[in-house]
Amino acid sequence: MHRKTLLRVSLAAFVVSLLCASAPLAANAVTSWGLTSAPPTILGYSHTARSGVNHTTSNLIGMTEITSSPAAPAGWMGVNCRIFQSSNDALKVDTGYAFTTSAYGSYTKFCYFGSHGTYYSWGVTALYNGSGNTYTYTYRSPDRTW
Fold first, then answer.
1. What is the C-alpha separation between 112 and 106, in angstroms, rounded?
2. CA torsion angle for 102, 39, 110, 60 (degrees, to 10)?
3. Which of 27, 86, 115, 139 can pair with 35 through a Cys bridge, CB separation 3.0 to 4.6 Å?
4. Domain chopping of the chain, boundaries
5. What is the DSSP letter of 87?
6. Distance (Å, rounded) from C-alpha 94 to C-alpha 92?
7. What is the pTM of this model?
8. Angle 100-94-110 from CA coordinates, rounded to 5°
9. Do residues 73 and 103 make contact, with C-beta atoms less than 8 angstroms apart?
10. Mean pLDDT of 92-109
11. Of the candidates 117, 116, 112, 67, the residue with the CA atom closest to the CA atom of residue 94
12. pLDDT digits 0-9 by tens, 41-100
């Protein structure tokens, strides 16, 4: 009985130490998301999409996320993550499309930019429609200065 209790306490202490060690990273990890758009329902799959922006000490991180209900088959959802400079809307990063490789209910593509300034993310989604893809822009994220 004591061995099980000791094991549980040790495991709990280990998990708490991991959470405490990662707390400084999580405290700064607030993503600024744009409004959620609703790309069309295609072949019985309803979708939502959004773009967001965050940063670390070394990079601005753009992200484009698409969700599907129910989970879409492999290859049916794609996203293109893009970062723009806010002052002149200049495109700074364009990842090209990445498509799911398994059935997913949600898929996010990240993109990175290393120059300080004010930027936003504005992505594009691709949804398989039976004979090709339907492309839809997300709403742009709020500006992020770092």
1. 20
2. -170
3. 139
4. 1-30, 32-145
5. T
6. 7
7. 0.77
8. 50
9. yes
10. 95
11. 112
12. 999 999 999 999 999 989 999 999 999 999 999 999 999 999 999 999 999 999 999 999
